[in-house]
Design goal:
An eight-stranded mixed β-sheet has the order 11-15-18-25-22-21-19-20, with helices on both faces. The chain has 19 helices and 30 strands. The longest helix has 22 residues. By secondary structure, it is an alpha+beta fold. The structure holds zinc ion (ZN) (2 copies).
Length: 583
């Protein structure tokens, strides 16, 4: 059966209700709190402090109970109730009553939804007939985890039960398989095996430190973005990590983003200061440092400065979410008539980069939400114009895209580039954002052809996003088998025995002199050294024995096991060509 995402979300949400009903049957003293649908299924948070706590083993039993209960779930009914009625209904459950109090304070309608005799506080959005609409082989209770009430460490710790749910059993099986594969590719595990980066409790969580090997890859990513920036006509700038709060008050980040910013104190001045979460406000100040004419535009600044965001410790994991990271960031200041050309060439560079990394992608046009105008700054008319420009551009370029309401930045709509990795997972990486707000707030100007003063448009863009996060994505995408140009060690040279060491050393030096990252490994048995090549996924290794020494050749072997006998100059020419083609 084909189901659209809306229906699938309803199914997942319904299963959260069903889980709560099953929990109440098996753990009568449990207090249900909240239980939303999520990307791969649903969860529900419970307070089990009044009785027995379920373990991972209890999930089977709970799942069985859900499958039994669903037979009586054929229709949802709902009723609007007063806050008092709702509070009476959930008496003794301080979590639900807190929610009810808030709804009452906000003047919101309070609704109760009932199915199969189980009632929950809810806003709606369910499968119409759960028994008929839900394939009971397409969901699976997944795991038990701790979660603070409303995600706040100051609140009581609850128990979260996760479930996976899909439209069909096939999709559930595929998701489970993908997860197994993802475990094998876990970038934290591979980064350890290949000695690429380090986290230290003393330094702090979410702040990666790269080893020389890891930094080779990170630099390769950054330098590639740099070369794309050159082609696009960007000038690279260098900016400080700390800024006065005043700057972010003008940009609007202070109001929209302050919770995510880390503050810094000076012993000499009283200014409120922050580690910067983004570069844009600073770039406006470089722009504002001189008088600009329409002929000077576009002006393009690129920046690889480190950025800092105050993420919740519980949400930090490997390189996926960090407190300290960089972006291959850039800002374009241009005239309105230049937007199309600029966005178009940036999209071209992003497509080129992703094709080099052999990553599939699709694009998302992220729009504002007319239902929540308070989330956005600026004139709605200008917003509509910006959205139209981007939509028309995507259509004109024939780029397949989806539109997403409510995903825009607070200052303007954007095109988000979603990477699809080797095992089908999606990552939002690059972005191109139009901004009609910040230039006006910073009173940026240029002199137009008719001599009048005009406000430039600002375009925020990243090519691959954060090199740090992207490295994590690449490790998993390649399962640690980096292509030659990215590999920290490109060639390893293995002399068969002591008497071949001199020639092997000479070959290593020749490769290094040609700019190839070559490494001699002469210790241990040949078998062990070959195994180490395989574990560390070195792309090419050379075994050097009598034959090679006599003929002044090398026998190279790649990851596919393909062998080739070559002279050293031929090997260098071949590898250099592959590396410069980023292959
Ligand atoms: Zn509901
Ligand atoms: Zn920006």
């Amino acid at each position: 059966m084909v189901k659209d995402t809306d229906t699938l979300e309803h199914i997942r949400h319904t299963l959260a209700h069903l889980l709560a009903a099953a929990v109440k049957e098996l753990y009568p003293s449990a207090k249900p709190t909240i239980g939303p649908a999520i990307d791969n299924g649903f969860y529900y948070d419970f307070d089990f402090s009044g009785g027995e706590q379920p373990s991972e083993e209890s999930l089977k039993e709970l799942q069985k109970k859900m499958k039994k209960l669903i037979n009586g779930w054929t229709e949802f009914t709902h009723e609007e109730v007063s806050a008092d009625t709702a509070r009476a209904m959930f008496a003794g459950n301080q979590f639900k009553t807190e929610l009810i109090d808030e709804l009452e304070k906000a003047g919101s309608v309070i609704t109760l939804y009932t199915c199969g005799g189980f009632t929950d506080l809810c806003r709606g959005g369910h499968a119409e007939n759960p028994k008929a609409d839900i394939d009971t082989d397409a969901f699976k209770l997944d795991k038990v985890a701790g979660a603070y009430w409303r995600g706040d460490e100051k609140n009581p710790m609850l128990t979260r039960i996760y479930g996976l749910a899909y439209a069909s059993k096939e999709e559930l099986d595929a998701a489970l398989l993908q997860r197994e594969e993802a475990k094998k590719r876990d970038h934290r595990k591979i980064a350890r095996e290949q000695d690429l980066l380090v986290f230290s409790d003393l330094v702090g969580s979410g702040m990666p430190m790269y080893t020389p090997k890891g930094n080779v890859i990170r630099n390769a990513i950054v330098n590639y973005s740099r070369s794309l920036n050159d082609k696009l006509g960007f000038g690279e700038v260098h900016t400080p990590n700390i800024n006065k709060g005043e700057l972010f008050k003008i940009s609007g980040h202070y109001d929209a983003y302050k919770e995510d910013m880390l503050s810094v104190r000076s012993q000499y001045v009283t200014d409120e200061m922050f580690l910067k979460p983004m570069n844009c406000p600073q770039h406006t100040q470089i722009y504002a440092s001189g008088q600009r004419s329409y002929r000077d535009l576009p002006i393009r600044y690129a920046d690889f400065a480190n950025l800092y965001r105050d993420e919740r410790p519980g949400e930090l994991s490997g390189l996926t979410r960090l407190r300290a990271f960089a972006q291959d960031d850039g800002h374009i200041f241009c005239r309105e008539d230049q937007i199309e050309q600029e966005v178009s060439s940036v999209l071209g560079a992003i497509q080129e980069a992703l094709s080099t990394y052999k990553i599939n992608s699709w694009m998302r046009l992220s729009l504002g939400d007319a239902q929540n105008p308070e989330k956005y700054l600026g004139d709605p008319e200008v917003w509509r114009r910006a959205e139209t420009i981007m939509r028309e551009l995507l259509n004109k370029k024939g780029i397949e895209h989806k539109e997403a309401i409510g995903e825009a930045a607070f200052y303007g709509p954007k095109i988000d580039i979603m990477a699809v990795d080797a095992i089908g997972r999606q990552w939002q990486i690059s972005t191109v954002q139009l901004d009609f707000v910040q230039p006006a707030r910073f009173q940026l100007e240029y002199i137009a052809q008719d001599g009048s003063k005009r406000t430039p448009v600002m375009i925020h863009r990243a090519l691959i996003g954060s090199p740090d996060r992207f490295l994590g994505i690449l490790i998993e995408h390649y399962a640690g088998a980096f292509p030659l140009w990215l590999s920290p060690v490109q060639v390893r040279i293995l002399p068969v025995s002591e008497k071949h060491a001199e020639y092997a050393t000479a070959v290593t030096e020749e490769l290094k002199a040609a700019g190839i990252r070559a490494e001699l490994d002469a210790d241990d048995s040949l078998g062990k050294r070959i195994r180490s090549v395989k574990i560390q996924k070195v792309p090419i290794y050379l075994v050097v024995g009598d034959q090679e020494v006599d003929a002044k050749t090398v026998t190279s072997e790649n990851r596919a096991g393909e062998k080739e006998v070559l002279s050293v100059p031929d090997l260098i020419a071949k590898l250099s060509a592959l590396i410069s083609a980023r292959s």
